[in-house]
Amino acid sequence: MPKKHYLFTPGPTPVPPAVSAAESRPLIHHRTAEFSALFEAASRRLQWLFDTAEPVLVLTGSGTCAMEAALVNLMRRGGQVLVVLGGKFGERWGEIARAYGLEIVPLDVPWGETLSADQLEAALAEHPQATAVCLTQVESSTGVLFDIQALARVAQRRGALAIVDGITGIGAHRFHFDAWKVDAAVCGSQKALGMPPGLAFVALSPRAWEAAERCDLPRYYLDLRAYRKALRDATTPFTPAISLVAALEQALIELQQTGLEPLWRRHQILADATRLGAQALGLELLAKADPCNILTTILAPPNVDVNRLLALLRDDLGVSFVGGQGPLKGRILRIGHLGFFNPFDIVTALAALETGLHRLGYEFTIGAGVRAAHAYLIEHGAEAF
């Protein structure tokens, strides 16, 4: 009998059947009225997801493609950018900026901790030449949630553009592009949208569009002005991933049917249940003060080899979690519950975790994690579906 596989990673995430079906429709040409109607509808729904009146541009590429697009369209040669380094993806902002010869002002945040508005204020006061701040809403390498509303407010007050990696956060956590005065936000298809990888999304504020006109960094495929111009005609400047655009429209339809508030609330309930289940097993969480709702980061218990545990779960049980990155490699495991998940999935994840820990000799009361999570989910279950 073939093994059944369970995907509990923070991206890619499980894809709903209707979204897979939409992606498998017969291919259409991208320079037709049929595609333009599809693309225009999906673009409007993306504005709903970002909560913005500004156009949300669709790129064919990963979330990193959108990160790079944001920087090359908003910075000038040799410009100074303050980069918040609180995890692997904060570091990625710095790597992209360095590749384009920008001057980087690193603002180090211990992995597993967040950044306060006062800390950002002090850093920008010390570096008034920084024209932009690179932020990460959800640092999926650590499981920490950053307060983008407060941080963007500081950036605006200091005259710096707030550029936000919302790749794993948008759709799972509260996000209000216009109201929070964010200048650039990026997202990816394989996260809360519950789609395969391959599309990336970028929104710019009016202030950011002014910067895009002044920018002198090299850009061609990632010139967002070309995407904005093409969007006025409900198309793209270059050949898009047509099948993924069809999947995008279906995914957004399903999210709109749920609604943003219920969507955010569901992610919170599933995250709370997972954290409770892990703690009931005597496990310690990495992100304590500001945990996100897209995944749970768990410190490896003594005498348990994380890599061996992950391999056992994946190869023997068909359950995929992920380990740590950078300095957290070999020290944590990460359980994703982002996108197309329900309470039964959380019970499955914790049951698998218990099985793997038991096989590796970790001592705990069997069923304790499942019991704690299940009790919480029964109490809040109606909200989590």
Low-confidence stretches: none
**Total E-strand runs:** 14
Shape: globular
CATH architecture of the largest domain: 3-Layer(aba) Sandwich
Task: Label the structural class.
Answer: alpha/beta
Mean pLDDT: 97
* Strand-residue proportion: 15-25%
- At the first level of CATH, the class of the largest domain is Alpha Beta
- Order of strands across the biggest sheet? 2-10-9-8-5-3-4
CATH topology group of the largest domain: Aspartate Aminotransferase, domain 2
Q: Helix coverage percent of residues?
A: 40-55%
Tally of DSSP helical segments: 13
Q: What's the name of the CATH homologous superfamily of the largest domain?
A: Type I PLP-dependent aspartate aminotransferase-like (Major domain)
Count of the separate structural domains: 2
List the secondary-structure elements in sequence, H or E. EHHEHEHEHEEEHEEEHHHHEHEEEHH
3D architecture notes:
This protein has 385 residues and is of the alpha/beta class. It has two domains: 17-257, Type I PLP-dependent aspartate aminotransferase-like (Major domain) (Aspartate Aminotransferase, domain 2), CATH 3.40.640.10; 259-384, Aspartate Aminotransferase, domain 1 (Alpha-Beta Complex). It has helices at 17-23, 33-50, 63-74, 88-99, 117-126, 148-157, 206-214, 224-231, 242-258, 260-280, 306-317, 343-359, 368-384, and strands at residues 6-7, 56-60, 80-85, 103-108, 130-136, 138-139, 144-145, 161-165, 184-188, 199-204, 295-299, 319-320, 322-323, 332-336. Helix 10 runs parallel beside helix 12. The protein is globular and about 60 Å long. The model has no long low-confidence stretch (mean pLDDT 97).
